[in-house]
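Record type: monomer structure entry
Structure origin: computed from sequence
Chain ID: A
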Amino acid sequence: MKLTYYWIFTTRPQSFLSPRECAYSVLRLRRLRLWEFTSRDGRKIVVRHAMPEDARHMHDGFCAVVEEGKWLPTLTPNGTISDWISWIHRARTSRNVLLVAEIDEQYVGHLSLQPEEWDASQHVASLGLIVMKGYRGIGVGRSLMHVAEEVAIENEFEKIILSTFSSNEKARRLYESLGYELVGIRRRHFKMFGAYVDEALYEKHLSPEMGSH
């Protein structure tokens, strides 16, 4: 893994302008942290924090995976691009984490970390992962999860939880290879297209040493 920093100019959205700035957009200099990995087929995988410009790709990527009907416990895509933009902005000022992965400057997947809703479990982050069809099995998901654990520790999370269909063997092998422990199976928890599907529950306890270089 290689970690680099770049300075980029970003445009401030019109909805965030003050009255004195309403006639133009404001360019801001922002430091962008990039994590670089090598895929199994020799290409460079770049992982970074999501920016508002990524919202359409993230929305479309989520919808594409939902429409496959195999990997996510929802039958129809939901949310709008505006919803994704709002989520990205919230992640900048909260403990929410949104990461995107690119190969050849093309979006290939994303990952989210969200604090649990209960006050007593704010040390726990729930992880969601999307990898686009055609880019699975080459290290995209693994790269995103490596970065997620580092950022989770920076955001003072102590544990990550996630779940997947028990039939999703590739995802389960990935999680287990990264040290996630199977802590339970919810039998017949989902009903997809008339068939029951079990849910496999995983968790991993983090330590500060995991995020150090």
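Annotation 1: Residues 2-211 form a domain with the Aminopeptidase fold (CATH 3.40.630.30).
Annotation 2: The two ends are 10 Å apart (CA to CA).
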